Amino acid sequence: NTSTANTSTANTSTANTSTVRTPNTSTAYSSTVRTSLLSEQQRVNTPNNTNLHNRALEEHRRLFGFSGQSIVSSTSQSNGKRSRGKGGKNGKSAKKPKVATWTHAFVCLAKRTQVLLLTPRERYELKSAGLGEKKITVEIKDKGFEDLYGILLQEFPLLSHAGGIELMRTGFGARSKTLEVIPVPTGSSSYSIEYLKEVLQQAKCYVRPIQKDLPVVIPRDCQDNLNTSTKEESSCPSEQCRLCLKSIPILQMRRHMWSCEITESSFSVEPEIICESDEESNSIPESLPHSESPSTSGSSSMVSCMEPGIDELRKIFPDPPNQVLVEAMLKGGTVQEAINILLDQTTTDHSKFIQDESDLAEIMFGLKEDLPIDGIQKFSIDRQELWEDSIAAFKNPKFKDSFRPRVRFLGEAGVDAGGLSREYGLILRKEIFSSNANLFEGKQTRKLPIYNINGIQSNLYYLAGKMVAYLIIHLDIGIPMLSPAFYYYLVSKDIEKASEYCCIEDVPDHETKEWINQVNEAKTNQEILELVQSHDMIDSLLRSGWVNSVTLSNRDIALQNLIVHEVLVKRKEALDQFCKGLKALGVHSAIQTCPEEMKVYFIAQQSQLSATTVLELFANIDAVQECDMCEKARGFLIDCIHFLETDEGEAGLKKFLCYMTCAEEIPPLGMPQKVEVVYVNQSNFFAETCMYELKVPKTHESLDNFKDSFMQACAHNKGFGAV
What we know:
Blueprint: H1 2-21, H2 25-44, H3 47-63, H4 71-78, E1 101-108, H5 120-128, E2 132-139, H6 145-155, E3 165-170, E4 179-181, H7 193-200, E5 205-209, H8 220-231, E6 238-240, E7 247-249, H9 253-259, H10 278-281, H11 294-316, H12 322-332, H13 335-347, H14 360-368, E8 376-381, H15 386-395, E9 404-409, H16 419-432, E10 440-441, E11 448-449, H17 453-457, H18 460-475, H19 484-492, H20 495-498, H21 510-521, H22 525-534, H23 538-543, H24 555-567, H25 572-582, H26 587-593, H27 595-598, H28 611-615, H29 628-661, E12 676-680, E13 686-688, E14 693-697, H30 703-715
């Protein structure tokens, strides 16, 4: 090889020499290229270069996935070196069989009646309690619901208190916020993992307890399980509690402060140590101990740590005493949470004026006591667009709900001294429950909020609650048309308690109501099964959480469950939003404190409007008039009121009452004042609704003519100057 290389080198030098001497340049260049290629080929074929080439080829095949026995591996084995591959015997790879698994997001709920997606607050509370969302992996092949249930119990130990679970997913609408129970496949008694994977796809799987709500505060028997599962993941530094002197992990210190066995009196400082001035501080006896007690130092250090947050709260809430701000910071932990707590307190602070045994007049007096006397909120209303104008007014950031209203109807000459405000209140109440607003449905005396996603997203139910609170406080106008179940949910904020007032009459959907009646009257299980299948009520039953077959033995429970779902559960978000609006001016606080007294504003009562009660509203209807014409007109008026009751009943009396006072019913607190009858020398009636004055014509000689004028006034009971 060496001689060959030398020869090649010699040839190369010869070629180079010939290149210089030969005048044919192209021939010399070709000779040079051939000589170079030959030299390169000889260099590559040397043993060292061959090994380098083979190693490069082997590395290339290893990196880019070439499999099988190669020449390189056999060459390396022949050289006495072990192959780098992972092959087993005969060069074949020994791979372990892969197990098919399914990883999915599961969300453990706490409430057995949960049918809506979680709010951010609920997600936070569930996560803090070891519930909420977790990624869970389960094998697919030959695995079923029993295996999944065992894994769920390991991931969510609190489920052992649930008494059974059911799996749910969101509805199939584009913006669905409701949860639906995943039905068991036909012909099977349980789920399979393949079935769940196909049904859920990308949707989260919600795990809902059946028999019992899960505690958000973790019980001690589950606390150990949670602690053991997280102890290895991270460790938490501890600090000594200044009250009980125990070593507590700092992340649990806030909760420990509320459950510490030391009483609240530990925070108090002995009266002898408190100094009112610097001069008195110098006169403290020397016999007093110089060291602070643990309780005193703990209290002062905690308050000093919260001073920046308290200063921020003081800028927003200048009126509350310092102790209130300290308690809010202790309870909330952060400035933002403390602000929310104080806002709730200011909203419900009206309850301090309400006693448990107060009558309605005392309750309303307490709610109105702090309202400014001179505050006026102006309304400019177009009758044709009253609902839109009202929304704009109540949404205006400058709107003051504590100010009394002053209303002006566009295009009308009336000046509001009370009458126009009452008329506006009546029309606004009708608009709230009208088809134009599309917020409520049901019978006239059993109204329920519609699950209107647009209304919820636009906060219209909150706005409606705020309007109702404003009408009650300033105009004594209620909404006596709610379902009792609706009202008692406002009282308790608990579906289980409010469900006691649910009945079939509350179900707005006529077909569902008819189906419930038919199932209730069925005589056999086969008849019930046919009713369920023929009316396609399976989806409705599943949405209500009923996953079993309906039989004679369980139909009462199934139907009651369906009624509660139709009346309350599926409307919960709208109910809560309306309830939040009622917190304005302390109305919701009054409802919770005195529900029986306040229900007159919300639930229809037995009618008390009659000819006798209408006549009692007049201040001087019984006074005998000296003028014969006035006395005759007084008698005609009394007769016409009785005729109106006989001919049209309560509806006719409401028309006359509305014309005379701008009120369709006697307010819960009664009329502010009696109506004065004035006899005038004209042929038509005229009502001064602001002044509570009714001008009665005395020129009619016959009862028929007087009655015609009277009925004309009743027919035109709306709008200034209509009569």
